[in-house]
Amino acid sequence: MLPTTAWADWDDRPGADWHPDSTPEHPCGGGAPPRGHFAREVAPASRARGLTLVVRQDGNRLCYVADEIAEAPVIRTRPGDQLVLTLRNEITDPAGIAAFVAVGQLDQPNPAVPERAGFTPVVPGARHTASGATNLHVHGFAVPPIVPQDEVMMTCADPASGPATCGRREVTYRYDIPANMPPGLYWYHPHVHGEAQAQMLMGLSGAIVVEGPDDAARRAAGIQDRIFVVRQSQDNDAASVQPAAAVPAAVPTSHKPHRPPYRPPTELAAKLGGRVDTQDELACGTGPIDEITLNGAPVLEGIPSDADLATVPMASGSRQLWRFVNAATDAFLNLALVDANGRALPIEVVARDGAPIADDAGQRRPLTTTEPQLVPPAGRIEFLVPAPVNGKAYLLSRAVDTGCSGDRVPERRLALVKTVPTAAPAASGAHPSVAEHGPAAAPDLFTGLLARPTDRVRVIAMAEYPRPGSDDQTDFYIAERRPGTSFRPFSMSAPPAIEVHANATEEWELENWTNELHAFHIHQLHFRVIEIDGKRVAEPQLLDVITVPAATIAGTGSAGTSHTGGVADVTKADPGRVVPGRVRIKLAFPASLAGDILFHCHLVDHEDNGMMGIVRVLPATATERPMRKAEASPGPFDGAPICRAQTP
């Protein structure tokens, strides 16, 4: 339950001195936008040369500047369009990026993990030194990982001052959006390995809306579209909160996370052997509270006054479509709508991760619920909100237990929803199924995924090493469990971890052997979630990022140390009693997306520090496997942030 009053610091009164113009004195503008602000929207297809995004630096801030406005615009495009984005790097102080990262940098590898008979060997890694190079990833786009599209391993732009690793200051991307890519909410951010977290914390991210027929139907019906981007700020200290009397709590829901008391290894995992060591992992600790912003304005801890909340007005009797991007580097959201007394109100979820809520055949299945909606880092959710009958409601993010070594994510209020009386009709008389959900869904790139036969099943393990401790200076690992595997932090010079043939369909069982939640993401693809912790999912969702539960200890049903619960630290348990959190997904690899596809944890410090791998999709007509420059010449690229860019 939240304390009643949140005290506002000097930077918690945004808007008063805000100006978004980029000037020589203030490259990223001045101040923070007011609460309730929404970013401007642009349609690059209407411009002869597309849209140019200039990355500028102002001390410990980075920003995307478009048309000399220092605010990442919401980009609107459509299936079948070619989206042209030019990225220019004007970062002036790469050392400022390195100094910004909260976790201390290591110039040498961590101490080795002691080898133990019967356990998967662990190879420590070293930290990356910030270069100031940057690039662009269009998260969720089903476009090939090749130049000049969504290639993030070798494509980059050099800073105005600093190393010239990339060989150029400007990159033009040309994304050919497939006509059958699901329309919905996507986003863009940098993906330079080793400093993606720093650049995102300093401000680099923005939303993309791929519009479809349902957008046109809602627009014709007068249903307003709101875009919310949640980012994580550079200040991770908890805000000052004044203790106060208790306030009405939300009515509890019946939903509880599924925590089986014990589940033996799957048949495949048991055959693989090579147990995963948990006694040398990051132990339980007290992480910081993740501070977040909503559309650039700080979100206060505790229960702010209505005046300190983003206010979203709604006409009486109307509905709005709210689209949320969780662009935080590692903060989870758990969204819920409540009335002034804390009682849960229904929302209608129409899309997740850019894909409409639909069954495997493409039939729409919108979900009306009062349950909180967990949105991991990089996740997106789109839902319809009705104007509050009683005049106002609150959008909350419920507390999230991320595990005993995860960051603390408290409950907080994000916005005030306020009904505004109006004499005009709230919306047209269009039929609700057309006005709100759009016409019947057409088959898309991922339709029929569940019906396809599975060619192979893999077990993918996620782990953290090399030592117990509360300091998050650790190495992160993701690897397929198979004979001869060792855990190694991702290296730019490493060969692909997995190779598949184009048009293959696989099931991956994701195992989390750690004391904290992870957010698994794979580029280019969406997948169906078919099982969580041994429980089959009744209606598998189509996602591109999924929360993988923390490990448990057999007989306790507990996932690490809850920030409000008892101790169940897997680093102190008999390895035979540790049960990994498990998620099973089904995914296919279309020939149109052949190339090197990245998969990783989207807690971005985990990604930067090793929890990433490559699956190489071999072209259907390939006579020999393709080779990346870094793989062909491993020596010079070991530990490097990026490789010399290829020319589009």
Automatic annotation (TrEMBL):
GO terms for molecular function: copper ion binding; oxidoreductase activity. SUPFAM superfamilies: Cupredoxins. InterPro entries: Cu-oxidase-like_N, Cu-oxidase_C, Cu-oxidase_fam, Cu_oxidase_Cu_BS, Cupredoxin. Keywords: Metal-binding, Oxidoreductase. Residues 1-36, 625-648 are annotated as: Disordered. PROSITE patterns: MULTICOPPER_OXIDASE2 (PS00080). Residues 133-213, 490-619 form the Plastocyanin-like domain. Residues 10-24 have a biased composition (Basic and acidic residues). This is Copper oxidase. It comes from Aliidongia dinghuensis. The lineage of its organism: Bacteria, Pseudomonadati, Pseudomonadota, Alphaproteobacteria, Rhodospirillales.
